[in-house]
Amino acid sequence: xxxxxxxxxxxxxxNNNKSNSIGxxxxxxxxxxxxxxxxxxxxxxxxxxxxxxxxxGYKGYVRSVKYLPNETNxxxxxxxxxxxxxxxIRSNKEIRVFEGHNNNNNSDGTSIINSNVICSGSYDxxxxxxxxxxxxxxxxxxxxxxxxxxxxxxxxxxxNKEKGSKNTNDSIYNVNLCYCSAKSMIRIWx
Length: 190
Fold this sequence. Notes:
Methylamine Dehydrogenase, Chain H; 4-stranded antiparallel β-sheet
């Protein structure tokens, strides 16, 4: 953990367990979650650099981990075992498991649309949208054949100026899906 324009404030040593991804800063504002090569997610206290808890349940290493927006107590993660999972940091328990991908869920391959819908990208070259209330897949987008897998995705609000308006504040926001493929192509859907 670094102070801006300074030096490292803390070094988090997770017992030689290699971390693969991090989710910054969620929960109560004082925690970081990390996905690891030992198939676990670890929750850390930012101020003390102490491990608070370990979440287990994956059969492959954790490739992405993020806090849900506006949900201070929920972590969303994706794994090499092809699943996406939600975890409650208050109870230290798994809440939901989403399955449907035919290959690894990739690093940064999980993005959150709103508090009820998440999406995941995978080496199976699909992006899947999941309803966290019903545990059901809502939609699937197939990447281009030459993409060879989805490795990162993010939702981006783009501002479009109203036609004919001279006022720069007259804008309409559209949400677009941006993803990076295994072949290093960046594509925007919207």
